[in-house]
Amino acid sequence: MWDKLYKKSNCYWGLTPSEKLVQYLSLIPKGKILDIGAGEGRNALFLAKHGFEVLCLDVSKVAAEKCKKLAKKLNVSVEYEVRDIREFSSKLCKFSGIICNGVLPFMKKSQSKKVIEKIKEWLVPKGLIFIVVFTTEDPLYKTYLEEGLKETENDTFLDPKIGDYFCFFQKGELRKSFSNYNIIHYAEKYFLDKYHGKPHYHGMARIVAKKQNKSDSRLLTAGMTTYSVIPVQTGI
Q1: pLDDT digits (tens, 9 = 90+) for 107-160
Q2: In which element (H, E) is residue 229 found?
Q3: Closest by alpha carbon to 43, among 57, 29, 61?
């Protein structure tokens, strides 16, 4: 599926990095970044240009090759592994930042929860996570119900068109998963997807959060926290 999509254009997702990654770049401690579902490298290449060591993960060989070529052209270095995050292990390496934009929906809900726990384990204290998921406000969720698709588990459907599972998060669920983190940004909103097919909307939840030392638990109610439900937003 993904190899076919990445063959369709020179850069399927474009090269503009995620808005919140740019906004909060200065808060990421220097170190190694894990970019889950890195694609052609729009975020990884941006981070590499700013001096970060980056490990990219993606299931697409086509995306990996395109990212490597772009990195060479830009004279930056990124490490790339063609691997499913569900099969990835990082016992020896910790990360100062972890990006996981739009990856968790493409699996069972139970699997996405396990990946979130892995992300927490892999992140260093003071490290930042950037995660985007789809919510039950997504029109696709309603479409599945209207078409009579049965949930295979909570908020999870087997999509016959992609031949794989697709899951959604309830309102506030992603934020609750990081309740012991310092929430820097949290928003649930709609965004306009112009990347594939006709322009269409998705309901999404996005979080930027910092892992705290145990001694810093008192700071969890402080810091920069934003919450918004915005009708229309382009890009993630």
Answers
A1: 999 999 999 999 999 999 999 999 999 999 999 999 999 999 999 999 999 998
A2: strand 227-230
A3: 57
**Six-digit token pair at 117?**
């726990």
- What does the block give as tokens for 141? 């969720």
Q: Residue 39, class by beta-carbon neighbours within 10 Å (0-12 exposed, 13-18 middle, 19+ buried)?
A: buried
Judged on CB neighbours under 10 Å (0-12, 13-18, 19+), 157 is buried
219 in any annotated domain: yes
Q: What is the pLDDT of residues 181-193, one digit of tens each?
A: 999 999 999 888 7
Residue at 203: amino acid letter: G
* 168 within domain boundaries: yes
Record the tokens describing residue 119, joined without a space: 């992300």
SS3 label, residue 156: strand
* End-to-end C-alpha distance for the chain, whole angstroms: 21
**Confidence band for 86, pLDDT divided at 50, 70 and 90:** very high
Split into its structural domains, the chain has a count of 1
pTM given for the model? 0.87
The answer to whether position 105 is within a domain reads yes
Residues spanned by the domain of 88: 2-230
Write down the pLDDT at residue 191.
Answer: 82
* Amino acid of residue 80: Y
CATH of the domain at 107: 3.40.50.150
The percentage of the chain sitting over the pLDDT mark of 90, rounded to a whole number, equals 70
Residue 131: CB atoms within 10 A of its CB come to 24
